[in-house]
Design goal:
- With 376 residues, the protein is an alpha/beta fold.
- It has a domain of 122 residues: Thiolase/Chalcone synthase (Peroxisomal Thiolase, Chain A, domain 1).
- Helix content is 38%, strand content 18%.
- It contains 14 helices and eleven strands.
- The strands form two sheets. It has a nine-stranded mixed β-sheet, with helices on both faces. A two-stranded antiparallel sheet has the order 5-6.
- Strand 10 and strand 11 form a beta hairpin.
Length: 376
């Protein structure tokens, strides 16, 4: 496999946007192409979870290719639920690494605010196993079951994982791309509305619109791919062997580290999927930053802060940047590239950065991806 580099990235502001999904994707793609100094690419991969139900849009890859003036390049849609953005990036990497294409554009996005909150919840619940969904299971409800088991096993308290939301809001407070630019306290989190006990409103990522794009190429640039991995898991929780860890992340991380030839202690910072705040803690353990049951203690001790041993979600994460489900996995990569290039503005980690890791969750951890990038 030949080396692959990241030559350009672009992102829209996340939040409630009046533009269409295609408008947002085109906006981010044009920024990425401009950043890369290109007006043409050899292929296009579009990641989105469910534009048909969220935004009443279909044939999305062809429409975006047409709007960007890229016809007749191959245009393909990729879907792996809420890791679709990472999956689009992976497919672009495979295409460029094979040597078949020189430059490939990955785009990811979702527009979720056009429908009611109840409708969003129903659409998101469609990724849950039918045998669990028929009893009223939702994504927050099943996530809450996982967190209850973690609390029972490791002694974490609600005020402990509330620190994830506090940290990530602080990181995003000056981000021009974030849905939320406000500081919150542990008391704010604990006093917010209960969504699925023990998860409160401020433990859950918001319903957002937004898009992100990356250009990957065989031409040398300042950031290159070092490793990537993907793992899957049984969809029903009843078929899983463990509740307090995501096997799909552990497999993906193992493969990414093996390809990169490095270890967790080599990573400079990470973007970890925190659609529910305790998932950042579980993710930090699954990628090897902490031993099982120790991630929340590392959080409390400041190890995952912007100035800590292993900064996690300096972008604000899904919690504060927002979570347009199809976009988030690629937005993580864009933010990682900007950090490695020293271009993250007020979000910049003020020390030398060598390796970045991103971890994206698809569904209820049924299709997870880990990506490792290197500054060169």
């Amino acid at each position: 496999m030949q080396e692959v580099y990241i030559s350009g990235g672009g992102m829209t502001k996340f939040g409630k946007r009046k533009e269409t999904l295609v408008d947002l994707m085109v906006e981010s793609a044009r920024k990425a192409l401009q950043d890369a100094g290109k007006d043409k690419v050899d292929a296009l991969y579009v990641g989105t979870m469910n534009p048909e139900e969220f935004a009443a849009e279909s044939n999305i890859a062809s429409v975006v290719a047409d709007r960007l003036g890229l016809v007749p390049v191959p245009a393909t849609r990729i879907e792996t639920a809420s890791s679709s953005g990472a999956a689009a990036f992976d497919e672009a990497i495979y295409a460029a690494a094979s040597g078949y294409f020189n430059s490939v554009l990955a785009i990811a996005g979702e527009k979720m605010t056009s429908v009611s909150t109840d409708r969003v919840s129903k659409i998101l619940a469609e990724v849950i196993a039918p045998e669990e969904r028929k009893y009223g299971a939702t994504m927050p409800a099943l996530a809450a079951m996982i967190i209850r088991r973690y609390i029972y096993k490791y002694g974490m308290k609600e005020k402990d994982f509330a620190e994830v939301a506090v940290k990530n809001h602080k990181n995003a407070v000056r981000s021009p791309y974030a849905h939320f630019n406000k500081l919150i306290s542990v008391k704010d989190v604990l006093r917010s509305k209960v969504i699925a006990d023990p998860l409160k409103l401020y433990d859950c990522s918001p319903i957002s619109d937004g898009a992100a794009s990356m250009v990957v190429t065989s031409e040398k640039s300042r950031v290159k791919l070092r490793g990537l991995g993907q793992g899957s898991e049984h969809v029903p929780l009843t078929r899983r062997k463990k509740f307090t860890t995501f096997q799909s992340t552990k497999i993906a991380a193992e493969r990414a580290y093996k390809m990169a030839g490095i270890y967790p202690e080599d990573i400079s910072f990470a973007e970890i999927h925190d659609a529910f705040t305790p998932f950042e803690i579980i993710g930090s353990e699954d990628v090897g930053f902490f031993e099982p049951g120790m991630g929340w203690i590392g959080l409390k001790e400041g190890e995952t802060s912007k100035t800590g041993r292993i900064p996690i979600n300096p972008s604000g994460g899904l919690k504060a940047r927002g979570h347009p489900v199809g976009a988030s996995g690629l937005a993580q990569v864009v933010e990682a590239v900007w950090q490695l290039r020293g271009e993250a503005e007020d979000r910049q980690i003020e020390r030398e950065l060598k390796y970045a890791l991103t971890q994206s969750i698809g569904g209820l951890a049924t299709n997870n991806m880990v990506i490792i990038l290197e500054a060169v």
